[in-house]
Specification:
Elements: H1 8-19, H2 25-47, E1 82-86, H3 91-103, E2 110-117, E3 122-129, E4 132-134, H4 135-142, E5 154-157, E6 162-165, H5 168-177, H6 196-211, H7 213-218, H8 223-243, H9 257-273, H10 290-298, H11 309-319
Parallel strand pairs: 1-2
Antiparallel strand pairs: 1-5, 2-3, 3-4, 5-6
């Protein structure tokens, strides 16, 4: 048989392949890109509200009451009355866990953990709480008809069955000052009067461009919006790194709420924000001062106990579908680097 002769079966397959019509690859790519981009913008609009330029706009927290000894205040300090509801992966909730641990309030203020569920589209209690299975149900219990976002942290009052506050910046101030009679470390003041102005300045500076800046990068929906905040983020990180060359902590020789608020973002940066949120100019580990500063804070007694890097990876990579459609969770990095020497105790703070 000639080498050019095909068997009937092979000849039929060849004709089928030749006769089969398909869309041109370019058109397939265009169609796929259009469909995915449309769906992506729809999902992102639910995940991250944006303005006309495509920049992520974080909604304000809506429960803003305070625990205090002021006469007439419904929420008086007490032990066993309040419960902190937090997600281990959330940096905003993590702030409250750090202050609760540093102040030694574990016995006074209980803790309930929630986990994100992509199926439920929000936070779910690991065990039913107040008759609620989801955080959304708890918000509805606190305020029937509530139409806002169901976020953590939540400071819950078990006496009145309501949410006292869901703004992390305000909760940590309360934990620092309003529960000292029940704290194991009552003399620790993370917001001392003489440093308040400086702490507030740092908080204002780091919130927009770092704490929220990484989210503004990750949730940006236009190139222009991303480029702008990317520049803001790393300009601020560079400035903080320079400031830390002459100061052990942001406000001098003592840890303050400014450090707590920055820490929970830095702790997640190399693992999550660097890759998933496209904040990839430089890792925190690569900074001369920010890297050791992060390790210094992590190694303070009680702080490492609040850190769960596996939960952080699982919550971000496993639940932010629009940013990671495959849901693949990275194996690294090895958190052992956080235990390496920091030598920050040798820095002479400039007063």
């Amino acid at each position: 048989m000639s080498q050019q002769t095909l068997s009937p079966v092979a000849d039929k397959q060849t004709k089928t392949k030749k006769g089969k019509k398909s869309l041109p690859p370019k058109l397939i790519i265009k169609l796929g890109k259009f469909v995915w981009t449309t769906i992506w913008h729809l999902m992102m609009s639910k995940l991250a509200p944006r303005n006309k330029s495509g920049e992520y706009i974080r909604p304000n927290s809506e429960f803003r009451n305070s625990v205090g000894t002021d006469q007439g205040n419904v929420y008086q300090p007490a032990t066993g009355r309040y419960n902190l509801i937090a997600g281990l992966g959330c940096p905003w909730a993590h702030r409250t866990l750090v202050v609760r641990s540093l102040k030694g309030l574990e016995q006074a203020i209980s803790l309930t953990i929630v986990s994100p569920s992509p199926i439920e589209g929000g936070w779910v209690f690991n065990q039913e709480y107040e008759g609620c299975r989801t955080l959304a149900e708890l918000y509805e219990l606190a305020q029937p008809g509530y139409g806002g976002r169901f976020t953590v942290p939540v400071l819950w009052d078990s006496q009145t069955k309501t949410i006292v506050n869901n703004e992390s910046a305000e909760i940590i101030v309360m934990l620092n000052s309003q529960f000292n009679e029940f704290a194991n470390n009552p003399t620790l003041d993370l917001y001392p009067q003489e440093l308040k102005d400086k702490i507030d300045q740092w908080n204002e500076r780091t919130y927009a461009s770092v704490n929220n800046g990484v989210y503004r990068c990750g949730f940006a929906q236009t190139q222009e919006a991303y480029d702008q905040v990317y520049h803001e983020l790393f300009t601020t990180l560079d400035e903080i790194d320079t400031a830390l060359s002459g100061s052990r902590y942001l406000c001098g020789e003592t840890v303050t709420l400014a450090d707590v608020r920055l820490f929970t973002t830095l702790f997640r940066f190399d693992t999550v924000y660097y890759a998933l949120f496209k904040c990839n100019r430089k890792r925190i580990q690569d900074y001369q001062n920010l890297g050791p500063y992060l390790r210094d804070l992590y190694q303070i007694r009680g702080i490492a106990d609040t850190c769960d890097l596996e939960s952080v990876k699982r919550d971000y990579y496993g639940n932010l579908f629009p940013l990671n459609p495959g849901g693949i969770i990275p194996s690294g990095p090895d958190p052992k680097f956080l235990q390496e020497p920091h030598n920050r105790d040798k820095v002479n703070s400039k007063q």
